[in-house]
Specification:
By secondary structure, this protein is α/β, with parallel strands linked by helices. The protein has helices at residues 18-27, 41-51, 77-83, 93-98, 103-115, 128-132, 136-147, 175-193, 213-217, 234-246; strands at 4-8, 34-38, 56-60, 87-90, 119-124, 157-161, 201-204, 224-227. An eight-stranded parallel β-sheet has the order 7-6-5-4-3-2-1-8. The mean pLDDT is 96.
Length: 247
Amino acid sequence: MKKLAAGNWKMNGNRAALAEVTALLAAHPAPACDMLLCPPTTLLAEMAALAAGSALHVGGQDCHPNASGAHTGDISAAMLVDAGASHVILGHSERRADHGETDALVLAKAEAAIAAGLIAVVCLGETEAQRDADETLAVIGAQLDGSVPHNATAANLVLAYEPVWAIGTGRTPTLEQIAEVHAFLRTRLTGRIGTAAAGVRLLYGGSVKPSNAAEIFAVSDVDGALVGGASLKAADFGAIVSALAAA
């Protein structure tokens, strides 16, 4: 499988920030891995236009489970496709925490995304309290079972493990902890969708930066990264892309 460096801009960036995309494409016109950036919706169509014909894919950060309707402030999977998106992040820990998103809602969104032709990047992860209580595998196993559609395949699903306590804190799990979780995810996913699980890319997300990317990418069953703050700058994200391409 081709590895994936994905960047989540979260609620950051304006049109001037698109200069970073131009710089990224100039420095990495044909990397040996896939690249994905998920900007705020206000930048999606313009970023997709910049990326057209390049090695960069563009995605959304969320979608509504319905195709249309009276849902003020929401955006549907079909609208993301119309704006030029190929992927959408779903079930990010910030959505689960800040908006109370349940596994059932994430599942409905993932089903809608796949039906619209998007690749669903489904996020899973435990809190610090759950990690300290030795509940990590139970928590992410339940999230996987409840959030991943049965019709998911390697062509329409990416899984991202994001330990909540490592996001934006500068802390990262040990390499052994990352390996344990990713091996568990591969096995659990096989139970969910069968042999297709072997080709699903498993991303690690949680304070990935140029200084630690290479060692994380050397871990078994880590097929790329979901990058937060470091994806906002072409130099930082490009260094992560280079590390993944060399892994």
